[in-house]
């Protein structure tokens, strides 16, 4: 399985958002849901219009852990969703596939869309988990609240969460860069 990293630079986040939005609004919405909620791609792809339209929270049973979650919808995400969901039917999948009638996009296609946008920017180590890791990395950078992220990601140790969001990698990279004899 390919190791993916968070997107650490805000300018790169903005560039990916721009590329995705120019190609397809659906792909942009998928990405911003991921970076503003920290949800797994499997949970994002199962969301329907009724789950987000005119809502303050996303309430779902996580596909992987089977636990119930209530996630606040960030005002920036809420603004984007309001426009995107304006004329959509309640039972319609938000991230709809072009194949079939009202079918969610498949995970492998979500990966391809993200990887293609990243490739245009010369970025590698990007995949579906990048969105979740990007959320965690930037949340930790601003809040330093590892406990919240541990709970959100269902991790048992701080070290697992720090490794997951790329903070340990940053520390190793800095140590090697600054190393001198």
Task: Please give a quick description of this structure.
Helix content is 56%, strand content 6%.
Describe this entry's structure for a reader.
There is one protein chain. By secondary structure, the chain is mainly alpha-helical. The chain has one domain (about 10-180): hpI Integrase, Chain A, CATH 1.10.443.10. The chain is about 55% helix and about 5% strand. The chain has ten helices and two strands. A two-stranded antiparallel ribbon has the order 1-2. A hairpin with a 6-residue loop joins strand 1 (about 55-60) and strand 2. Helix 1 (about 10-25) packs antiparallel against helix 2 (about 25-35), helix 2 runs antiparallel to helix 5 and helix 2 crosses helix 7 (about 130-145). It is globular, with a radius of gyration of 17 Å. The mean pLDDT is about 95.
Number of helices: 10
Strand order of the largest sheet: 1-2
Whole-number total of structural domains = 1
> Oligomer, anyone?
single chain
Q: Examine the secondary-structure arrangement and name the CATH architecture.
A: Orthogonal Bundle
Structural class: mainly alpha
Shape, per Cα inertia axes: globular
How many DSSP-defined strands?
2
The largest sheet, given as strand count, sense and whether it forms a barrel, is: 2 strands, antiparallel
Cα(first) to Cα(last) distance is 37 Å
CATH superfamily: Intergrase catalytic core
Helix content: 55-70%
* Named CATH topology: hpI Integrase, Chain A
């Amino acid at each position: 399985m390919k190791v993916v990293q968070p997107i650490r630079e805000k300018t790169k986040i903005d560039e990916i958002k721009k590329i995705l939005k120019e190609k397809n609004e659906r792909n942009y919405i998928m990405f911003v849901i991921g970076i503003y909620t920290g949800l797994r791609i499997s949970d994002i792809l199962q969301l329907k219009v009724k789950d987000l339209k005119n809502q303050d929270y996303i309430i779902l049973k996580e596909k992987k852990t089977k636990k119930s979650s209530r996630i606040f919808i960030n005002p920036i995400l809420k603004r984007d969703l309001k426009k995107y969901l304006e004329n959509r039917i309640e039972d319609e999948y938000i991230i709809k596939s072009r194949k079939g009638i009202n079918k969610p996009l498949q995970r492998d296609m979500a990966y391809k869309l993200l990887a293609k946008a990243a490739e245009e920017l010369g970025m590698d180590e990007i995949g579906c988990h990048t969105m979740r890791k990007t959320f965690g990395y930037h949340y930790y950078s601003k809040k330093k609240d590892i406990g919240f992220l541990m709970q959100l990601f269902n991790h048992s140790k701080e070290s697992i969460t720090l490794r997951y969001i790329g903070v340990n990698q940053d520390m190793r990279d800095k140590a090697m860069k600054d190393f001198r004899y």
